[in-house]
Design brief:
single chain; 233 residues; 2 domains; 7 helices; mainly alpha; elongated
């Protein structure tokens, strides 16, 4: 007797935290590096550059956490409202809901008889689960978790933001703009490729698109700093 030894790990199982982690790290790296580059390009000294960068790290991490929590909570509220409505409909009109589930399976390619049989068996086993999954598209695999998303976003934002701050603290002031920009682009390419790889997408494509937007952001803030030459000290 053979045993099935083919464990599968699907990328969708990671989507709950992966999106928040990649977004947080990218945002932390790009926004803080852009801030550091912009302030340095304005001719500010190292203390002012580091203070601005640190303030950006703290504010950005808190903003990411709050934004993710509110966004994902709204999604969760909508899902729960749909589940509550479906629960009420299953109680008040079970026959109509059974017909609806049957129609879904027919639309997916089953013949009428088999679709009806599947709908009946799933309804007897877990009617709400079947409707949530097949009618509403809601399943435990992709269910949003607000607190998890908020914590992951804040933590990864801080990790990404630390990189340009470390560079700004170590290199000569006159070289901060160039070194932070180069280091950030390299880090972005690695991060973009890693995120794409973990998510099952193309590594090169992921690295290029993240690096492009990061370079654009830093170029814009450097231009602002050089044009206005505002010294925050």
């Amino acid at each position: 007797m053979s045993k099935l030894t083919h464990p599968e790990v699907h990328m969708v199982h990671r989507i709950g935290w992966l999106r928040a982690a990649v977004l947080g790290a990218n945002d932390g790296l790009v926004s803080t590096a852009s801030l550091v580059v912009g302030v340095a390009a304005a001719g500010s000294g190292r203390p002012e550059i580091l203070i601005a960068g640190l303030a950006g790290l703290v504010a950005g991490a808190m903003s990411m956490a709050a934004g993710e929590y509110v966004s994902v909570s709204s999604q969760t509220d909508a899902e729960q409202a749909d589940i509550a409505r479906e629960t009420r409909e299953l109680k008040e009109m079970p026959a109509a809901e059974l017909d609806e589930l049957t129609g879904i399976y027919v639309a997916r390619g089953l013949d009428d008889g088999l679709a009806r049989q599947v709908a009946i068996q799933l309804t007897e086993t877990d009617a709400l689960g079947a409707h949530a999954r097949d009618e509403l598209g809601i399943s435990e695999t992709v269910t949003a978790h607000p607190i998890q998303a908020a914590l992951v976003s804040a933590a990864t934002f801080a990790v990404g933001a630390v990189i340009p701050l470390i560079i700004a603290a170590l290199v000569p002031v006159a070289q901060i703009t160039l070194v932070v920009a180069i280091t950030t682009l390299v880090a972005l390419s690695v991060l973009g490729g890693l995120g794409a790889s973990v998510g099952g997408a193309g590594v090169v494509k992921g690295a290029v698109r993240v690096t492009f937007w990061g370079a654009l952001a830093m170029a814009a803030t450097a231009a602002v700093g050089m044009i206005f030459g505002v010294n925050v000290g």
